[in-house]
User: What shape does this take?
Amino acid sequence: PIGFQMQDNSMSPKIPKGSIVTFKQKDKYDNGDIIGFLAQNDENLYIRKYYNKDDLLFLNPSNDEFEPLIY
Assistant: This one.
């Protein structure tokens, strides 16, 4: 497993800022899984809920104050 510290409140209240989150890499993710995502050309790690629909990747926060990321 790989561990990271939550840097913002995007996944609050489930994962508050400052929490240590561990991930285990998988070959396939299911809709609703919480994943760590490193976007191309971006140095930030995003911790979000994974959804794949119509060949688009949606990374949704739990906190409505944050926008979803769409790739």
About this structure: Residues 7 and 56 are 25 Å apart (CA to CA).
